[in-house]
Design goal:
Blueprint lengths: L3 H14 L5 E3 L2 H11 L6 E3 L17 H12 L3 E6 L8 H13 L5 E6 L13 E5 L3 H10 L2 E5 L10 H9 L3 E4 L4 H7 L5 E4 L2 H12 L7 H4 L4 H24 L2
Parallel strand pairs: 1-2, 3-4, 3-6, 4-5, 6-7, 7-8
C-alpha cells in the first residue's frame, strides 16, 4: 500500500513488535495480514477465535415473556423459523437476505418467517411481511431462542473483511442449522465448512436449497464438531500458544 499514513502505521507497528514474544489475533485472515505487515520480522502469530459457551439455558428470562410468546406463535404457524438476535452493523447484508426470503415465500417455497430480536428500530422491518420483530431481549433469552429456532441466520459483511462475530459462534453451538450469507471472506467460509449444520450461501438459489434441507431435517449437527466453536477449545489453543512462546524464549536463553 502506497498510502503514507498506512506506511507510517506499519513502521511504528514494526518498532513496537520488536519487543513482543508473540501476537494473537481474532481471525485467520488477520493472522495473514499481520504476518505481511511485520515481514521480514518472524514473530509467532496465532489466531485465537472468540468461541462461545456450549451450555444452553433451559429457560428464557421471565421479563421477555412477550417476545418468547411471539417467537413460538410464529414458529408454530410457519414451516421454518429463521432467527437473528443482537446488533446489526450497516455493512451486514440484512436487506438482501430479507428480500430473498420474501421472494422465496412469494414463489411457493417453504413458508419461512424471520424472527429478529435486538435493540433495533421496528420501522426498519415494516416492508418485509415475513419478519416478526421481537424487540430487545436479554442475553439469556437470546441463547434460549437460538436453541429453539428452526435455524439461525448470519448476514455477512464484505468478502474482503475478515470478521468472525461472536454471534456466529453462539449460533453454531446452539445446535440448530445456521445459514450464512451472502459474501463470507475466504477464511470465514473455511471455518464454516468445518460444521455439518452450517450452510454457506453465496446466492439466493443456495438459500432456497438450504431452506429445503432445513425443512427436511437434512442439516444436522455433529456434536463432536461443536467443541471447535467453544470458548473452552480456544482457551486451550491460547494456553498451547503461550507454552510454545515460553519454550522458544527458553531455547533462545539456552543458546546464549
Amino acid at each position: 500500500d502506497t498510502d503514507p499514513f498506512y506506511r507510517l502505521k506499519c513502521w511504528l507497528q514494526s518498532i513496537h513488535l520488536r519487543s513482543v514474544a508473540g501476537i494473537t489475533v481474532a481471525t485467520h485472515g488477520m493472522a495473514e495480514q499481520i504476518a505481511r505487515q511485520v515481514a521480514p520480522m518472524k514473530v509467532p502469530i496465532a489466531p485465537i477465535l472468540n468461541g462461545a459457551d456450549v451450555c444452553q439455558p433451559s429457560r428464557p428470562d421471565a421479563e421477555d415473556s412477550a417476545a418468547v410468546n411471539a417467537f413460538f406463535q410464529a414458529k408454530h404457524t410457519n414451516e421454518v423459523l429463521l432467527l437473528y438476535t443482537g446488533t446489526l452493523c450497516p455493512a451486514q447484508c440484512m436487506d438482501r437476505f430479507l428480500n430473498c426470503i420474501e421472494s422465496l415465500n412469494a414463489f411457493g417455497g417453504a413458508r419461512t418467517v424471520v424472527a429478529v430480536a435486538g435493540n433495533h428500530d421496528p420501522q426498519r422491518f415494516h416492508r418485509w411481511p415475513s419478519v416478526r420483530f421481537l424487540g430487545k431481549v436479554s442475553h439469556l433469552t437470546s441463547r434460549f431462542l437460538q436453541a429453539q429456532a428452526s435455524a439461525c441466520f448470519f448476514p455477512t459483511c464484505s468478502a474482503k473483511d475478515s470478521i468472525y462475530s461472536g454471534k456466529l459462534f453462539e449460533q453454531i453451538v446452539a445446535g440448530p442449522p445456521v445459514v450464512v450469507g451472502f459474501s463470507p471472506s475466504g477464511d470465514l467460509k473455511s471455518l464454516c465448512t468445518q460444521f455439518n449444520h452450517v450452510a454457506v450461501c453465496e446466492s439466493e438459489g443456495q438459500v432456497a436449497l438450504a431452506l429445503e434441507r432445513i425443512r427436511a431435517k437434512g442439516l444436522r449437527q455433529a456434536p463432536e464438531q461443536l467443541f471447535l466453536a467453544s470458548k473452552e477449545h480456544w482457551a486451550g489453543q491460547l494456553a498451547h500458544f503461550l507454552e510454545t512462546l515460553v519454550s522458544l524464549e527458553m531455547a533462545q536463553v539456552a543458546s546464549g
